[in-house]
Amino acid sequence: MMEPKAVFDIFAEICKVPRPSKHEEKISQWLQSFAATHGIECVADEAMNVIMRVPATPGYEDHEGIILQAHMDMVAEKDGNVTHDFLNDPIETYVDGEWLKAKGTTLGADNGIGIAMALAAITDKDLAHPAIECLFTVDEETGLTGAEKLQDGMLKGKRLINLDSEDDGQIFIGCAGGIDTLAKIHYEKSPISNLQSSIAIRLSVSGLLGGHSGDDINKGRANANQLIVWFLARIWPQTEIQLASIQGGNLRNAIAREAEATIIIPMSYKEQIRVEWNHYVAQMENVFGEVEKDMRLDLETTDLPDSVIPSEKAYRLIMALCECPHGMIAMSQDMPGLVETSTNLASIKMKEGYIEINTSQRSSKEASKHHLKWAVEQALAMACDEVTHGDGYPGWAPNPHSPLLETVKKAYIDLYKAEPKVLAIHAGLECGLFLEKYPYLDMVSIGPQMYGVHSPQERLSIPSTERCYRWLCQTLKSL
What we know:
Elements: H1 5-15, H2 25-37, E1 41-44, E2 50-54, E3 66-71, E4 93-96, E5 99-102, H3 109-122, E6 132-137, H4 145-149, E7 159-162, E8 170-175, E9 177-186, E10 198-206, H5 224-235, E11 242-248, E12 259-266, H6 270-288, E13 296-302, H7 311-323, E14 327-331, E15 339-351, E16 354-363, H8 366-380, E17 386-389, H9 403-416, E18 421-425, H10 431-437, E19 442-445, E20 450-451, E21 459-461, H11 462-478
Parallel strand pairs: 3-6, 3-7, 7-19, 8-18
Antiparallel strand pairs: 1-2, 2-6, 4-5, 5-21, 9-16, 9-17, 10-12, 10-13, 11-12, 14-15, 15-16, 20-21
Helix pairs in contact: 1-3, 5-7, 9-11
């Protein structure tokens, strides 16, 4: 049996409720039903954010209240050979030693386990605590729109514990801001030149680690989109290539794990392309092999498609994607070990009549975030006829003198006789948006150990979850 039982029982119920980003209707209703079942005051706003309120336990009535916050949505990623409908199917979990995992999909512990810990705490009749508000937001993963649409005056507390971190024994007191860039290149399909003497070749990349575009961007992982584009740029001047299709990646906040392209070449170039590909595979294994143990780069002949992308547009697209930055750009000078600025070439998607490129920029410095946004725009504008930017979201500036930070640190020390690390995180959290509406909030972020979030390799440490929940309960008793 996994401990704490109450937390894992609730998480098991959450896993039965489909909740991909932008589709939180079912989980929002489930939370409201949970509150009704347990006699908890509950309200949902127009954005489907849910707020629950429980009164202080005896003896804590005059203590200042606390907000526990987590987000409802999960990243919907699966292995290419897995059949799973994230809008209807439950997440299938299993235990592997000390880890909880999902069968071929993301687990959704980011941030379902945060919800589970909050709900376990407010339904524990033996836990002493001040008044608690639970804030569960929608759409954190793809735009933070739940936090953005939270209305002024909805929250009553002045202290907030965000439960969306993923590192054991660490307290986060700051995060990066971010902005997305979306580019499109429109085209009309062209017929294949020299059809009778041409063959189609499918290039594919699979088996990469992928991962969170904030937490994992500095870990030397390969980007599947880049691996495809680099090869195409390498061989383009030497052969008479026609590009039929190119696509890779999925979500803006996940490093691309899979990508593929179909090219048309004259039959006479077939052996040359195969030799070039083999050389290229060896080089990429030399570059990424220590990190990407399961990387696969495959080449195979395939059926000739009906049409191709016009040659000039295809060439400009490949060159623009080569120029588009990806990865860690700068490390923080203020906090050693913290990535300051990065960008993610997240996805290339074939649509009807156009190709769509999604990127995501992050930085703990607002100016650097915008400078990088413009650099991405300039690169993609080489080929794309439309480049737009999202509204973005602010970072959360660290406050090392936070009273709540001292309380949470002391609770950890009292429990485990060791001092937790105090850090900022390169990933985005909703805290910056909360500060815009509630500038007086004193906030920290904690969570249990997870690895591989935003990918099917996502796994949650069972012992760490128990430690984190005990820490949360100790903090509530100490407030």
